[in-house]
Backbone:
């Protein structure tokens, strides 16, 4: 750090904090401060110094608060710098979802005509990508409100026809996470935005889906043309509003899009690894409890039969277990901790219920 940057850092830091002592160690400046409530002040310092490629870290050492400041050594990767990668992935996922919707419509039309395959596939694609897109939009909006810079969403291609055409999407932050509050706010916004869109798609899908009687259902099962899926409490509630007890709603591609939306929301809210739920758990309970909850979530996925997802999370957690926070000293505000009750409620309502648990 040259003399000009060093003087700027010292002036800026002392203008925000009550500095007791300053220590120069190797290429770092360490400020011992007397302030007690520092979360907002520290966030302000981070924003002022980040543009000059300088990072700050707040630590508590021997009951003293230390601000450690040094030049940033991080270099962004090609995937985070290129604007073409998310565009190409979005195009690929759009094509895969269209293919998946087209195939599903043709299969259903063999028994019950639900519409032109291209038209239904277009609605299916709009619905599914709308769910994923609004999820990521929630992250982007809140990140922007907190002054964070992010990439565009990266849509993950899946396996159409034989599986799920997309495994969701994610965004990458161009900033280091300042504090627990910001991590929590950005994490919770995505599932809430995405869930609202999922419920809208569900209601539209139910209102346009054929209602089947028992005889038709038995014939279709006999021909192996449809399969049962694990509904959640929200789906069961909406279904009950559109059918009688002895009727069934056909799982059209549009309803399948909503089912994927609920499944992704459920998996994403689990307090594991660097999922949205993992970020919220890390913010609310700290790194040690985050580790325990990650392994508990993996075990829970194995119990539910989601072996691939459980193994995927476990391998990635072993490769990258930590979530670095510049200010890991300040606790998550109580109103955010109370909001975690909503997260637990959403996990329960989006939980895919095994049929042997249904009455």
Residues:
């Amino acid at each position: 750090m040259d003399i000009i940057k060093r003087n700027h850092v010292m002036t800026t830091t002392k203008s925000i904090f009550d500095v007791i002592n300053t220590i120069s160690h190797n290429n770092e400046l360490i400020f011992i401060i007397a302030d007690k409530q520092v979360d907002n002040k520290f966030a302000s310092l981070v924003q002022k110094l980040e543009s000059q490629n300088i990072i700050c870290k707040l630590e508590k050492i021997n009951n003293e608060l230390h601000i450690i400041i040094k030049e940033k050594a991080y270099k962004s990767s090609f995937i985070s710098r290129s604007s073409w990668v998310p565009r190409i992935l979005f195009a690929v996922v759009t094509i895969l979802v269209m293919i998946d919707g087209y195939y599903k419509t043709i299969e259903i039309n063999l028994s019950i005509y639900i519409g032109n395959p291209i038209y239904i596939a277009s609605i299916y694609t709009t619905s599914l990508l709308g769910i994923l897109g609004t999820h990521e939009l929630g992250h982007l909006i809140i990140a922007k409100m907190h002054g964070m810079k992010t990439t565009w969403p990266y849509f993950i291609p899946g396996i159409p026809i034989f599986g799920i055409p997309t495994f969701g999407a994610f965004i990458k932050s161009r900033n280091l996470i300042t504090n627990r509050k910001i991590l929590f706010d950005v994490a919770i916004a995505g599932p809430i935005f995405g869930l609202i869109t999922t419920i809208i798609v569900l209601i539209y899908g139910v209102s346009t889906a054929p209602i089947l009687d028992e005889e038709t259902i038995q014939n279709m099962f006999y021909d192996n043309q449809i399969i049962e899926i694990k509904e959640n409490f929200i789906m069961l509630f909406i279904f009950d509003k559109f059918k009688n007890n002895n009727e069934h709603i056909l799982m059209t591609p549009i309803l399948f899009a909503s089912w994927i939306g609920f499944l992704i929301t459920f998996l994403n809210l689990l307090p594991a690894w660097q999922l949205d739920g993992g970020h919220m758990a890390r913010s609310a309970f700290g790194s040690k409890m985050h580790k325990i909850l990650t392994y508990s979530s993996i075990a829970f996925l194995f119990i539910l039969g989601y072996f691939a997802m459980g193994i995927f999370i476990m391998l990635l957690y072993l490769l990258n277990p930590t979530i670095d926070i510049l200010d890991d000293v300040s606790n998550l505000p109580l109103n955010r901790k109370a909001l975690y009750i909503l997260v637990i409620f959403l996990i329960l309502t989006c939980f895919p219920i095994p049929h042997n648990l249904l009455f």
Remarks:
- The chain has a mean pLDDT of 90.
